[in-house]
Design a protein that fits this description.
CATH class: Mainly Alpha
Transmembrane segments: 30-53, 65-87, 107-125, 145-168, 202-226, 247-268, 280-300
GO cellular component, one term: plasma membrane
Domain G-protein coupled receptors family 1 profile: 46-298
Protein name: Olfactory receptor
Strand order of the largest sheet: 2-1-3
Strand content: under 5%
Number of strands: 3
GO molecular function: G protein-coupled receptor activity; olfactory receptor activity
Length: 325
């Protein structure tokens, strides 16, 4: 009954919120804008290049590359949901965001992060099948199975995010509309409510812990089996090749999970210990660093993609030089 009273309110919602940016670091906003702009440009170019190469090259139509293509698309959505507005705040000081835009941003940011963790699990499963059951690879990972996995991952993210967005958006906002953050992070928004934000914050913490915890457990189990199979190979060359392929995936997972979980638990458990500007910076970098570095890691460590990218770039350069001449 009390929960219903918290969310069924008749107070008029604020027309807009105001994003502070990074509290305490306003003097560094211009430099942060330059850094974010450079990283966002790299993220867009790199991920678009990955999607284009995989989409155009028929030799890359394998499950691993399909999941990588979807991961690149999700990275574009995740970075684009927050970075343009951040740069606008840091450069021009235009820190207002409408009520509906704020909750739309919140939904896409957190849904994209939930999709990304599911994709990392799917990619770990793909590597497990490729290394431990190579003769059954194409029979197990059919296009129908891959599509089904992608749909389940997306539905899981929607099921998780929809109640959270509903709970936060239906809180009564009758006081300050200044968000001490650089994007509409749900805990920062919920703190402005005139009602107790604990239900939505607890739902977020428990839901994130269950989703990430279960995904990490299955990923760890997959890589445990993979490493056993790899070290059981008689050929050192085969061992190194398998470890190299898995190394890029492990690097991407470390980039995603370590700062992501640190951001969540610091906001909950370390809010009185860790300075606010550090909390906000951690949450910001968590959304832009993985999309920036994922294409570099995969581009440098995956031979097929590296060769196709160079081929595409050389082809474009020759086409351009021929047109000029």
């Amino acid at each position: 009954m009390m929960l219903a009273l918290c969310y069924n309110h008749t107070m008029e919602a604020p027309a807009s919120f105001f994003l502070v940016g990074i509290p305490g670091l306003q003097s560094s906003h211009l430099w942060l804008a330059i850094l974010l702009s450079a990283m966002y440009t790299m993220a867009l170019l790199g991920n678009i290049l990955i999607v284009t190469v995989i989409w155009m090259d028929s030799t890359l139509q394998e499950p691993m590359y399909w999941f990588l293509c979807v991961l690149a698309a999700v990275d574009i959505v995740m970075a684009s949901s927050v970075v343009p507005k951040m740069v606008n705040i840091f450069c021009s000081g235009d820190n207002s965001i409408s009520y509906n835009a704020c909750f739309t941003q919140m939904y896409f940011v957190h849904a994209a992060t939930a999709v990304e963790t599911g994709l990392l699990l799917a990619m770990a499963f793909d590597r497990y099948i490729a290394i431990c059951k190579p003769l059954h690879y194409k029979r197990i990972l059919t296009p129908q199975v891959m599509l089904g996995m992608s749909v389940v991952i997306t539905i899981r993210a929607i099921i998780f995010m929809t109640p959270l967005s509903w709970m936060v958006s239906h809180l009564p906002f009758c006081g300050s509309n200044v968000i001490l953050h650089s994007y509409c992070e749900h805990i920062a928004v919920a703190k402005l409510a005139c009602a107790d934000p604990m239900p939505s914050s607890l739902y977020s913490l428990i839901g994130s812990s269950i989703i990430v915890g279960s995904d990490v457990a299955f990923i760890a189990a997959s890589y445990n089996l993979i490493l056993r199979a790899v070290f059981g190979l008689s050929s050192k060359t085969a061992q190194l090749k398998a470890l190299s392929t898995c190394g890029s995936h492990v690097g991407v997972m470390a980039l995603y999970y370590l700062p992501g979980m640190a951001s969540i638990y610091v906001a909950w458990l370390g809010k009185d210990i860790v300075p606010l500007h550090t909390q906000v910076l951690l949450a910001d970098l968590y959304l832009i660093v993985p999309p920036t570095l994922n294409p570099i890691i995969y581009g440098l460590r995956t031979k097929q993609i590296r060769e196709r990218i160079w081929g595409l770039l050389i082809h474009c350069l020759f086409e351009h030089s021929n047109l000029c001449s």
